[in-house]
Amino acid sequence: MLIEDEKVYPDCAVEIRIVDVGGLTKPELIHKLDQHSISLNKYGEQLLNDERFIVSSTKQSLQTVELTVRQLGFSDGATTFQLFRRANDLGLECCPVELGPYLRMQYLDQPEICSTNISEGNKAPSGSITIASEALTEDNEFPKGFYLRRINDKLWLRGYLADDLHIWSPHDRFIFCRSQLFIA
User: Fold this and answer.
1) What is the pTM of this model?
2) What's the domain of life for this entry (predicted)?
3) Which pick of 46, 111, 142, 154 has the fewest CB atoms within 10 Å?
4) Residues in contact with 81: Cβ distance below 8 Å, sequence separation at least 6, in sequence order
5) Do 94 and 53 meet the contact criterion of CB atoms below 8 Å apart?
6) What tens digit of pLDDT does each residue of 168-181 get?
7) Residue 101: what pLDDT?
8) Which residues of 53-71 are buried (b: 16+ CB within 10 A; e: fewer)?
9) What CA–CA distance (Å, rounded) separates 128 from 177?
10) Distance CA 54, CA 20 (A)
């Protein structure tokens, strides 16, 4: 359901970041994550180590926008396809998959938001921010992308599984790219 009476993007407050991406080989990128004490779950490791995860040798700066599913106009939640289509209609783009590790290393002051619920149903984990990116494969057993989270004061870059029927909660947070600024 599309919200008519609540503020949606671009008429709402959003977090905008400039993220430098690229310029490192995959082993260098993994080493930098380790230097920053970034933890990975098994899906995050699977994504990073997959041959389809391509890193750019060219450094570029991307402007990202962080917003909720609700701020995209979905008060009852939406599928990934619906979110990406709506974001595209609003002038936002999916991020390159490699943005996840770079954003994680640059966003070190992510707040920790704890939840007492062990199972949160179809809601992403509390305090997490999902990077909106095209899946590397349609295989539902392979991670669809990355999300960022701080747990017990430890920074995480985590991969996640979701099928096409998954409904994201109105409070789930996503990062989209606004536009490519320049190549450095």
Assistant:
1) 0.90
2) Bacteria
3) 111
4) 164
5) no
6) 999 999 999 996 54
7) 98
8) bebeeeebebebbbbbbbb
9) 17
10) 16
